[in-house]
Amino acid sequence: MVSKLIEKIQKTKAPICVGLDPMLSYIPEHVTKKAYEQYGETLEGAAEAIWQFNKEIVDATADLIPSVKPQIAMYEQFGIEGLKAYDKTVKYCQQKGLVVIGDVKRGDIGSTSTAYATGHIGKVKVGNTVCTGFDTEYITVNPYLGTDGVKPFVDVCNEYDRGIFVLVKTSNPSSGEFQDRLIDGRPLYELVAEKVVEWGEASMDGAYSNVGAVVGATYPEMSRVLRKLMPKTYFLVPGYGAQGGTAEDLKYCFNEDGLGAVVNSSRGIIAAYKKEPYTKFGAEHFAEASRQAVIDMIADINSVL
Question: Looking at 105, 195, 232, 251, which residue is catalytic?
């Protein structure tokens, strides 16, 4: 699967990922108004507004980008109707030829991990029929339960040519409360990185592994160390833009070949019309603002590679 992601990154010359993390406050009034007129101020109405918002952004940016990352929590808050919008968004992005990274941060043990993996990146047998659940190309995985929690995901990756990104060093301010703790004189995130390499050796796809790592843009010196520890691991890099990460901060996430990382931006793209210098587009043309924000992000990142 990682070879498919790399191929799309090379084709677009855009090592980026658009985070489809819609909040109702991001959605222009003309979109929500139409949805509420059709379905009322209900969970179904909210889900319809999210779907229409996502669809316009995907239509405006799909030719520029290799991948998207919908964060499932933004859909789950609207219950089953929200999950239907998540599913529609995933399938629509795949129709547009995009690699979909389901940001679900799952992780448990044994049969539970297997069930999570089956539901998101695998297949399930119903009687004599083989069915798919959400069927994204990638998902994010929490490694806190250790190998018992991660191996079932790797097994499903190998069976169905899928991928995972394991949380290693996240971009949030309090990540250091656990991730930076010293164990035998080394920070915990380094020990997790070494396990990611070990898990990844069981799922190589060319020069890189299908087992990737989440490494935040907000800690550039740490990403430099992690790049050396994980030379064959693809990084999913959150924290660019709205969280404060800059293009200069990102350069250590990449290898010398210009590969090795895909950088996510969520609010900075999907809510671009609310921010300078994109307010000139106005709410009616929010998708055009998102397209310009993508163009600017690609140029910014490529300037340091």
Answer: 105
CA–CA dist 13, 22 (Å, integer): 26
Per residue in 160-198, pLDDT (tens digit) is 999 999 999 998 999 999 999 999 999 999 999 999 999
Scanning the structure block, which residue is given the tokens 């790399």? 6
Report how far residue 226's alpha carbon sits from residue 204's, in angstroms, rounded to the nearest whole number.
Answer: 19
For the segment 206-242, what is each residue's pLDDT rounded down to a tens digit?
A: 999 999 999 998 888 899 999 999 999 999 999 887 6
Buried b (16+ CB within 10 A) or exposed e, 20-53: bbbebebbbeebbeebbeebeeebbbbbbbbbbb
Q: What gap in Å lies between CA 93 and CA 62, rounded to an integer?
A: 8
Omega into 15 within 30° of 0, i.e. cis?
A: no
Exposed (0-12), middle (13-18) or buried (19+): which is 283, by Cβ within 10 Å?
A: middle
Is 105 labeled as catalytic in the residue annotation? Answer: yes
